[in-house]
Structure formats: C-alpha cells, structure tokens
Specification:
The complex is a heterodimer.
Chain A: E1 3-12, E2 15-25, E3 30-34, H1 41-49, E4 56-61, E5 64-65, E6 76-79, H2 91-101, H3 106-119, H4 135-147, E7 153-157, H5 165-182, E8 186-190, H6 193-199, E9 202-207, E10 210-215, H7 217-222, H8 227-232, E11 237-240, E12 249-250, E13 253-254, E14 265-268, E15 274-276, E16 284-295, E17 299-306, E18 314-319, E19 330-335, E20 341-343
Parallel strand pairs in A: 3-8, 3-9, 6-7, 7-8
Antiparallel strand pairs in A: 1-2, 1-4, 4-5, 9-10, 11-14, 12-13, 14-20, 15-19, 16-17, 16-19, 17-18
Chain B: H1 3-13, H2 23-53, E1 55-56, E2 59-60, H3 63-70, H4 72-105, H5 111-117, H6 127-137, H7 142-146, H8 156-180, H9 184-192, H10 197-208, H11 210-226, H12 229-234, H13 241-251, H14 255-282, H15 300-329, E3 330-332, E4 336-339, H16 353-381, H17 388-396, H18 403-414, H19 428-438, H20 440-453, H21 456-464, H22 469-498, H23 514-523, H24 527-554
Antiparallel strand pairs in B: 1-2, 3-4
Helix pairs in contact in B: 2-14, 2-16, 2-17, 2-18, 4-8, 4-11, 6-8, 6-15, 8-11, 11-14, 13-14, 14-18, 15-24, 16-17, 16-19, 16-20, 16-22, 16-23, 20-22, 21-22, 22-24, 23-24
Classes of the chains: A alpha+beta, B mainly alpha.
Chain lengths: ~350, ~575
Amino acid sequence: MDIRVTGLTKNFGSTTALSDVSLDVPEGSLTCFLGPSGCGKTTLLRVIAGLEEADAGQILLGDADLSRTPARDRNFGVVFQSYSLFPNLTAAQNVAYGLECRRWSKPDTRRRVAEMLDLVHLDDQRDKLPAQMSGGQQQRIAIARALAPHPSLLLLDEPLSALDAKVREELRQEIRAIQQRLGITTIMVTHDQNEALEMADQIVVLNGGKVEQAGSARALYDRPRTRFVAEFIGSINTFTVQDPQTDPHLGTVRLRTSQPLESSTLGVRPEAIKVLDDGQEADNVFAATIEKATFLGNMTVLHARLEAAPDQPVVFEAHGPADGLEPGRKLRLGIAAGDLKDLA
Amino acid sequence: MSGAARTAARRGERRSLPALTSDRGIALLLSAIMAGLMLVFLVMPVAAILLRSLDTQAGPGLGNFTATFADPRFWDLLVNSLTVSLLSSTLAVGLAYLYAYALQRSNVPLKPLLRIVVMMPLFAPSLVQAQGLLLLLGRNGAFNRFLGFDLDIYGFWGVALANTLYTFPYAFLILSAALAVADARVYESATMLGARPGRIFRTVTLPATRYGIAAAVFVTFSLSVTDFGNAIVIGGNFSVLATEIYNKVIGQGQFALGAVIGVVLLAPAIVSKLLEKRISSRQQAQMTDKSVPLTTRANRMRDLVLSGYCYAVMIVFLAIPGIVATASFVKLWPYNMAFSLKHYAFDVQNGTEPLWNSVYVALATAGLGVTIATVSAIVVQKFRTPLSGPLSFLAILPSSIPGMVLGLGYVLAFNNPANPLNMMYGTLALIIFLYVYYNHAQAFLIASTSLKQISSSFDEASTMLGGGVVRTFFKVTLPLLWPTLLGVGVFFFMRAMVSLSAVIFLITPETQVAAVSVLQLADRGAVNQAAAFSMCIMAIVIACLLIVRLVLWLAGAKSVTLIR
C-alpha cells in the first residue's frame, strides 16, 4: 500500500526537526530519504514508524490514518543502523520474534523462518548468536527478521552505514533485489548519494527539516530545483548571473538559455562543459585559461578561469589523460543552452 | 502484491488479541506502585523524623532544637563526632590510597589475596572492628594479657581506629577505580621531559585521582559520623552523636530529642553527598579511545617497599577476624585458652534464631530489593510517565540518609496507631522494607547504569516487531541483565546481613537479627559468644559470595562485580 504524509511537524524543545513535511511513497517502490546529518531524515522515518510522535500532520497508509496507532500495532518492519539483533537470541530465534508476538503457530513459524533465512542466504547460520556473525550477516538477519511478519512497509534506517565498503556494495544489490522480488513498499534513510542513486525509485532530498525536492534520480540530477539539491547530488559549477530576467549575462558574455531565467544562480554540471575545437561553435562560448589539471586515471579534472568572469572559477572534466591541457593553456569552452540550470 | 502475498500480509497484520493491559497502562501502574512504595517506606519515615523533631509539649515549634543546642553536652558530642570522623576518614583515605596505588601501579605479588583481605570489614557488622580491636588491644586483649603491654584503647583512639578499619574498604574501592585508568602517553611525555618519579606522582597521578580522593573522603566521613556500632563497643565514656540518639531513644524514650539529633546527623551526610555529586559531575572522561593503557614497569626497590606496606596492612586486616575467630573457639577468653566449640551452641538468648532471622531477612531483602530497584530503574529509564522525574529523585534520596536516622523514622512512622500500616510494626517484613529502601540508591544506580548500556534499539526493534513492554523485558532485557541483577542481589544480601544501625530501633525479641545479637552479647560481656556470632555472619556472607561467584562462573558471566 502507498504511504502519504501530509504536513508533518516535529520539534525537539526549541529545535525544529521537521517542518511541514509532505510526501507520497508509491506502492511497491523504494524511496530514499537523502540529506546531510541533522536534516531530519531519521526523525521522519521514526515518526512514520511510530517511534516518535509528530506535533502535527498525518500519516496515511492506503486510506487508513496511522497517526494514532501505536508503533507495535503498525505492522511495519524496521532495520536499524546499528545491529539491533537481540544478542541473547540465535539468528532463527531473532527471525521468529515478530511471529511469536503475533502468535503464529509453531509449524507456520518454523516454515516462515526457514523461508526468510533462505531469502537472505543464511540458512547455515540459523543457530548462531549475533556475536558469532559478521556485520553483513547480522544486517541480513535483521532484514529477514523485519520481513518475516509480512509487514506492510519496510523501513531501513541507514542499514549499510556501519559496514565496510565491499559488504555495503553487495548488500545494496541484495536489498534492492529482495525489495523488487517481494514488491514491498520501502523507505530507506541514507546520507550516501551513491546509495540513493543506485537503489531508489524515488529520492526525497531533505534539508533543515524540509523537503527540498522529491523525484527520480534522473529528474533530480537533470532538473535540480535548488542549489542544495544540485550540489548534494553530483557536483556542479554555480555562477552568479546579472539581470537574469531581463538580459541575462555572465560577466561580459550574454547568455542563451532554453527557458527564461528566474533566479540569479545558474548551475552547470562539469560534464556539460565542452572544449571546443577551432571553428566549432556552441550556444554559449567562453574564452578560458587552464589553471590546474588533476589527473585521476580515467579522467582529468580541469580548473579554469573564464575571461568573461575571472572571479568565478569553473571546473570541468576531460576523459583520459587530456594531453595538452596544461596550466596556462588558453582555450574555448562551450555550454549548450539546455545545460544551464536555473537554481533557486 | 500477488494474491498469495496479500493473504499472507493480512495474516501478518492480524493484531494480537485485544491486549488486556496496554503498554501505557502497565507503565502507569508500575510507576504508581513504585511511587506509592517510596512514599510509604521512604518519604513518610523521613517526614516523621522532621515532624517529631518539631513536636514539643507546647505544640509545634523549634523548642527541641533550642533546648538541644543550649545544652553544652550537645556541642561536646558534635565536636567528638566531627574530630573522630575527620581523623578516621583522613587515615582511611591516606592508607587506602597507598594500598590501591600499590595494587594498581606496582608489581606486588599476590594481588588477588591483598585485594580480598581488605574487603573483610564489608562481610561483618561494623562493630566487629571494635570487637577485634578490644580482643587485641583492650584491657583483656592479647597485647596486654600475653605480651605484657599496658595499653588503653577505649575512647577516642579506639573509635578512630575502628572506624578507620571499617571505612578502609569503601575508600579502597573508590580509589582503586580511580587509579585503575591511566593514559600511558601522559606518563611517557612526563618522563621524556625529564620528570623524576616524585614529580610525576605530584603532577600527573595525584591530579588525575583528585576526584576519587574527594569522593573517598566524603564517603568515609559520612560513614564514620553516622556509625554507631564501633562507638558504643569501644568508646567507653567517649560518646558521639550516633550513640547519643541510641541513648536518648532506647535508654530514655526521648523520641523528640532523638529526632533532633537525627536531623542534625542528616546535615553532614547531605552536605557531603551534595559536594560529592558536584565534584563527580566535573570529572571528565580521562580515557579516550586513543588512550594507551598504562603498563607497570619493573622497579625492584618500589615493589619491595610497597610489598612491605601492603603485607603490613594485610596482617592488620587478617588480625581482626583472626582474633575474633580465636576468641570464638576458646573456652573463656583470655583466662582459659583451651579449644572449645561450646560458644557455637548458642545456648543464650534466642539461640540461633537471630541468625536464621538474618538469613531469611537478607534473602527476602535481596529478592524484594532487586525487584524494586530494577522496576524503579525501568520506570525512570524506559517509561515516560509524569512520575518518572519525582521517582528518579526519590530513588537516590536514601544514599544521603544515615541508616540510624531512617530506622528511627520507621519507628516514629509505623509505631503509631494512626498509621494504617501500624500492624507492620514489630514484624520482619518492616525490617526487610527498611533494608530495601536504606540500600535503594546504590542498587538503583547499578540497575540504571546497566539498563542504559542495553541499547535502546533493542526496545525499538521489539516494539516494531509487535512486542509489548512485558515481552521485551522477559525475552530481551532480563536475559541480558540477570548477571548484574544477581550482583545487586548479593549487595542487598550482604548489607542486610551486616547492617546494625538501621535496624537497632526496630528490634523486638521476636524480630532479633544477628548483627544486633552481636551488639547485645558484646554489651553484656559475653565476649566469646559475640565472637562466635560474628564468625557465623561472616561465614554466611562469604558462602553467599562464593555460591554466586560459582553460579556466574558456570553461566560464563565472569566480569560481574559482587563486592561494592
């Protein structure tokens, strides 16, 4: 079932953790809450889970209002950041816990536990205690435990952040595969943009307790509405434009844009800046001087100074070793009108 | 979702049968019970003392206070109490610091033995120190009788010495913990900068342990000021405030004047508690995750000197129970030193009944105490009810109330026909509640600390899986907590076996406990039987420690502290 959140507000004392947050999580999708630490993403997850109570706002699961339902009756599965497996119970007992709370029969429980351990490929670890398992294995058991009672929603609170890089990579794919196979509506909190880009159907970018922008990874990357979103997902050059609404120009160069500009902040992704050969033209052309070239193997990151606006440095990329692009070299840079992003 | 998954989901959503008791209901109920018990067994007795001290024949007023303060004898007693406590506190902390330093920072041999021997005073009623000192240095003591000395231990020096021995283990435990942690990098820096050992001790070791020293001074001082057993046995004509309450109440039935001195005794205890709290809150963590633990280097000379000191102290601490044991096994100390077991027949007074009373009371105190301290800790730590705040204050209140004062409060509150619980007066049940609440603060703090160490994500995980508070407690919290709780039980058991001053006013012939028997036997000159009684108490406490240690060892929980 889909989840709809409207007007959620939550204060801790005098600090506002969430202010008027509204969003939709479509049925069967994986939605990531993405943002820097302190942006309210974990609070939002905990309010949806029922572990925190909101000061105002509504949480709807399908048509049912959950705002007053206690956490234990919401039937949501949660996987926490730190391994929250019960240390005194074996892997199988941990998975069975939620079923016992729901008074499943013994044979049903046994069958479901086996099924779940099989799902996360840990049937051979069933009698191990959490301390005898690796971090990755513990987190997989935690996922099995959360999914066992057929939750209507799966909540993942930075489930991978305590793991090392290689395990994290594996689990990303595994979580996504399980989620898609079961078709379970899922919300995952993360501060890692790559994780969000790789796994999510929908990304909700949060900043200062507010929803900055929500959409698919592609939409957020191609059409960021704010400077915060543009900088948080991928990297971007930002320029200050003069007279954006009437006669937009950057330094001494008049700008050609695909749509009229609203704000004076303009963003350009590094890969949208092309080095022009002699005689080649583009919508916007800038004369520039290379200041620094950093070789990174598959590409070279170049810092340059625009003659039109020497106080606004620009960064772009060249694939491969970029022979001849040494500091001091003068060249022409082209940017297509559609690649100039109007940022609020 | 597929059709099958949908059916399954519906089964998963099947809420458990409508809960008879919701989590909120349980939380409120338990909070109310805990608050009610604290009101009856803690607040009411303290209030009774305060009210009684203001109760004069001419109606409520400060008459009792002005009368007491106008009496020059009161000021003599106050000076006696303060000087003797100051001296024994200074001695105990100084000696214990060096002892703890030797055990933590040098290579003296047989450390486990050295550590356990100085704990002996905790296993016996406080007056055993006085008992042992008298058998060693008293008129009929070994030194005077057998070695030709002519010592007079009764009075100021006797009380000071007895209280030094009695409070030494408390100081040692605190200082040992303070000296246990040290960052080797600081010591290495000091050495590389050219500091000699004396300067390093002054500039590094001492400042790092100053909070421990302050805490030890406060604890030993308030123990001494409020101790009653040693002063009454070895004090002779030297009286202190604690013995004065006993005389006023038991001897003369002057409850109001006893209550006045009780209020006066509350003052130093509360002041030192507040200071201790203030100081410990300023103590910041000295160890960070980057710290390098200090390892002890070889130093033959230092180890030799400290070994000599430690073994001398150990001999003193062995001599006290040793001489008491000897006295319990001879026909008639010091005249007939032939071996005899007749003092263990306990053909006096109520025979062995006080001993079994004590064991029963101590076991019941352990069971009830662990339950009450744990539930209070859960109510304060885990439940957010309107009562959590007041409860957390009340839970640690007893730590500043001297046992004797609380005991007097129980008499005043429960020996009152107007009190509906008056029927509890004169029963062992009331003594059990007194022991539980007298020791509540420390037990509550231990339980709270352990609860805090159990990550709150376990509670949340259980909640999200549909578990209620009761299931979470029995399936998750209790299995993780039981070794600590067993340790808390041992703590209650030990204190209930040995506490004297708290129960002294509540004793009737039917509810006699062992520690009071020792006092009464010693008081009427039955030296050998008193010694035998003390030995039995110590044996029971040590047996309990060994049994629990074995249980913990078998269960694989080896790091639980039992002696506190």
